[in-house]
Structure formats: C-alpha cells, structure tokens
Amino acid sequence: xxxxxxxxxxxxxxxxxxxxxxxxxxxxxxxxxxxxxxxxxxxxxxxxxxxxxxxxxxxxxxxxxxxxxxxxxxxxxxxxxxxxxxxxxxxxxxxxxxxxxxxxxxxxxxxxxxxxxxxxxxxxxxxxxxxxxxxxxxxxxxxxxxxxxxxxxxxxxxxxxxxxxxxxxxxxxxxxxxxxxxxxxxxxxxxxxxxxxxxxxxxxxxxxxxxxxxxxxxxxxxxxxxxxxxxxxxxxxxxxxxxxxxxxxxxxxxxxxxxxxxxxxxxxxxxxxxxxxxxxxxxxxxxxxxxxxxxxxxxxxxxxxxxxxxxxxxxxxxxxxxxxxxxxxxxxxxxxxxxxxxxxxxxxxxxxxxxxxxxxxxxxxxxxxxxxxxxxxxxxxxxxxxxxxxxxxxxxxxxxxxxxxxxxxxxxxxxxxxxxxxxxxxxxxxxxxxxxxxxxxxxxxxxxxxxxxxxxx
Length: 457
Hints:
Layout: H1 3-26, H2 39-51, E1 58-64, H3 70-82, E2 86-92, H4 98-110, E3 117-120, H5 123-127, H6 136-141, H7 152-156, E4 159-160, E5 163-164, E6 167-179, H8 180-185, H9 197-207, E7 215-217, H10 222-234, H11 256-270, H12 278-284, E8 293-299, H13 303-309, E9 314-317, E10 327-337, H14 344-354, H15 357-364, H16 375-381, E11 399-402, H17 420-427, H18 433-453
C-alpha cells in the first residue's frame, strides 16, 4: 500500500471520528417542541430560544447524491418564501451512495460547517454511530408531519430500535409498462389489473418471436430483481420482500419453495426464451423503447421518457399477483437530519414542507409520486402530462410494499441482486447456486453475529 493511500485512509478515519464525536455531543439535545426533563432544563431552553429569535438567518446544508431538478428548485424556492430566514445550500456527494454521504458529512463536520439534512438510503450505517436525529417527537408535534398520511411501511423501513431516523424523500412505485400494439399484433387484449405471474409468463411466450427480434420481457435488471423481490410474498413463500422471514432476520432462500420461485424466474429465459440473450438483442436491436418487447418492469420515473419517446401505443399495469396475493413495490429513499446539525428544528421544517400538498403537486410534474396517501394528490397525478389517459392509479391500487431500506441487517452479505453473477443466472442461463443460494446461507450465519453486535437480539 502506498504512503499516499495510507495517509488518505488515516484522514478518512480521523474525519469520521470527528463526525461521531460531534453527533454524540448533540445526541442528547431535544427539539424545541420536546418536553424537558427538569425546570432547569426548561429554563435553559427558554434562554436559548430568546437568544435565537425565529427570524434569525439560517443556512441549512443539504447533502444529496444528485443535482436539483427544476421542479425541486421550485420547491426550495417555495420553502424559502414561506420561511424567508432559512436558506438551503446543496452539497453534492459524488457517487450518491451511503459511504459517499457519510464521507461528505464527515468532511463538512471537520471543516467546521456541519451539514443539517442528508439522504438516508440505509439506516444502519448512520444508526450505529448515532448520526441521525430521532424524528419521533416531531412526528407527534409538528403540525404537518403529525397529520401527514405517510405510508406506514415506508416509515417502518426508516426506523431503527424504535427511532424514526428518516422519512421518505421519494415514493416511486415499480410498475409494468405494456406495449399494447405488440399485444394486439398477436390478438391479445390489455391484461386485467388483477393479472397473475402465470398470465405474465403465458403472454410473454405468445408474443416472443426471435426470428423477427420480438420478445415478451425486457432484458433490463428490474425485470428480474423486482420479480425476485415480490414473487415470494405473492406465492406465500415468504412474508417479506426478497424471501426474508417475518422478522427480517433470516432469508428463506434456503427452502425448497423459494428455490422453486427462483427457478420459475430463470425459466422465463432458460425454458421460454421470452427474454433474449444479450448477444441476440444487440444484433436485432430489440428493446421495449424500440417497440418490439411487450413488458418492461421499471420505475415510474421512466414515465416521462416513455411519454416523450415511445412511438407506439402503451399503458401500465401493477405488478402481477401470485398464488397468495398481489403486492406492489415502492422504491423509497429517505431523508433525515444529522445529529451534528446546529439547526435541527429548521431542518425538520424542510422535511415537513416536502410533505405538504402544495410541494408534492409541484413534484408530480417532475414525474415523482405522492409521498402521502391523499386523494387530492391521486386526482392530480392522473392529470399530469406524463400519466394522463393511462391506467396509472391501478398500479398503486394493490398492497404496496416499501423497499427494505435498512431492514436487512448485513445486506452487503446478502444476495447481490444487481450483480452480474445473479443477473447472468436469470438472463444468460448461468448457475444460480453460488450467487443466490449459497450466498443466502452465508448471510443467515453472518447476520446473527452482526445483529448481536448492534444490540438487536
């Protein structure tokens, strides 16, 4: 290892230590709306409030993984108009991953300019060092958050040991985009909203014709990842997404029923050939956007691209159901307040503002979905330029399950659904045993020790 790399590692460790110390020193502070433990504490809080009037200029630093879109800027401007004394400064974390977020927060803390707001894609890296504010008191006292109809499963995904370490920043369902013209070419009508995985498979087989470059199912990663995520729940194989048990402690991928579900997904290519091999797709130029693939499982954030660029008749459906039920899948990323923030109350005001009807309506035009379950927002959603005239409301008319952000303790040692090994097992006929079944067995042992270390068991 070079001296330069060693120096950089030592610097990173020192910076993270600084952030942790600051978080610990602030961890016992309460939001201004929380009851104090003693008269002396109340008096101190009162004095502090009098020294910091509500119109004092405040700048909040918001760490995020991508630049602000025009619609997000509108929301920031609306927030500033409502709270003229609060300005939000965006700090980009290159890469956008959890490690990138922590690194950015550490660097800002070390520079004496601690950040206030941060994306939360996984609670555990933050929770183990008490780096985030518990928002539970605010969820009861804040006038917006206390009444906001945030989906319970989305809130639970951002909890750790009973603490609400974040709230949803985005609620974007995964849906099925349907090429109605290709179905019609084969005399197939648009499937019903309560369709099943068997319907999905049979239709995909019927429209597949490699000789003309037409296939039933798109090659993209979501087509296998999301199917693997929900099919265990749909078939009654597992109570939670990705074959996790009732308490999110152990994977059920070691059971015969789960192995059968994985084999079913593999058979979409291995047996049916409804997903073209990559080499064949490159030659034929096949793809959903090209008009020669029937189904594509993808996020609603793709809706704008479909509306603007798909040159054929298309619509959307909820994810299919199985032998036991039909569930949907929501990709939810969180947002939280750093414990080292000097302006925690002001930071929470922004989190609350994101959940107002007015702010959410602006984000609907960006292609985002509502953060809260309000009928007014659903009515507005179907009138947006992206979804007008489509079956979009049906996609969230099933039981929605939130992406398990922070639920799988030791997720880095679980099946890496995005990896080439897993993807090639599903779409290129390779062996799934090592990347899926052996990895799940390894995870089941690994997570037991990690859970004990974190005080979860």
